[in-house]
Amino acid sequence: LPSLLLVLTVAPVFFAGQGEGPQKPRMAPILGIFHVVSIGVATLYARHGVVYPLLLMLTGQAPSISVTIASCLLVWSVACLPLSYQHFKHIALFKRLNTLLLATAIFIAFIQPEMDGDS
To answer: How sure is the predictor about 102, in pLDDT bands with cuts at 50, 70 and 90?
Structure first.
């Protein structure tokens, strides 16, 4: 169920506005904000059902909470890339926030701070 929710939340962002020419449909900024929030919630919901098992499969050991959170932030920022660079390319704030989210995910992944629950 978490993976289905994640796919159903991210799919409209990738496939919306695929029209060609000057009549290409545009997404309203409030709808874009709704998509960003819903993708974040779906990613956090899929943390234990999708992200954690993938990390477990890739590394062969149980990942720390900081790596799991960094991976969730990375999935969230990559899923929001079409919003900030296709649908809202004229709004610099969306691009900056998405870049900040991506940089934060990479920073947490490299630093791997100890968080509550890490042993």
So the answer is: very high
